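Troubleshooting log. The previous structure file for this entry was overwritten by mistake, so regenerating from the original sequence record. Sequence copied from the archived sheet and checked twice against the printout by T.R.
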Amino acid sequence: MTDAGPLDADETTFLAAVRSGDAARFASLTERHRRELQVHCYRMLANYDDAQDMTQETFLRAWNKRESFKGHAALRTWLYRIATNACLDLLDKRNDRTPVPSELPDPASELLYLQPYPDRMLPEDPQESVVARETIELAFIVSVQHLPPRQRAVLILRDVLGWPASKAADALALTVASVTSALQRARVTMREQLPDRRLDWRSPATHELSDDERAVVKAYIDAHERNDLDGLTSLLRDDLRFAMLPEVGPVLMTADDAVDGWVSGGLFRRGHDDWRGTITMVNRMPAAVLYLRTPDDPVHRLFALAVLHVVDGRIAELIGFDATDTPWLELPPTL
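Regenerated output below.
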């Protein structure tokens, strides 16, 4: 695997660290790639905890295989290759990382291992940031999980990272023809999974919340704080896609059905009627952090995180998470 052009200062210094066995210098040069590698692993695995583990595994493998780095490829390319194969090895071993058919009347599958990704851990490199939103949004992450692992790796390497077919083939020990075929099949699946989304992930995309998005998430929080069922219903598109993980997978439903389901589950009844909320972002998406105060409690405690996809001023997708078990998001426990 080769990258065009002479070695830059990083590769030259790294090569010297490899040859001398300088572990501290080796760690310093690889550590600067941690955030982007962790996002790469998250795209492969849809789980923050697993992404952390596989990033650490990448650094361990890199140290153990340091003699294989000859400077023919960029350090970043070499690390991505190791990270991709670490994720593939995990997926080969773990059948709980394959979407399972939902018993609900919906063609989607359950992703009970899906976890939100904190924006503060996204890469600071502006070249990564311009594509980060549409390739870190939950809809993309969920859709990618429906690809077989090696198709998933090909799609991410080729269409997200922009690698040429020859480099992706070398990284995955495949032929260029196999990579081209896998990419074609993966793109077909992604068009089926994301029929209404822009699929040109290599062109610039925004990563800041629009005024429209901020207004909708604020209205969503306000509706909870006022116990306003009509207001909540009016925010939802009629073809809402909803999931509350880890209980069930994504399902399509009408806005009225969604609200009826929430009410039957206790929403706005005594004990579930004293809400407060704040606006945040995860996966470059607008999100409402909801805090609930029960009758015998003097404070509002962290309860749920609702991640919203807003289209034309209404909520098209809502994925809820139990926020009490997401320490990596660093949300205040009380409000």
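The CA atoms of residues 48 and 248 lie 19 Å apart. Archived copy saved in two places this time.
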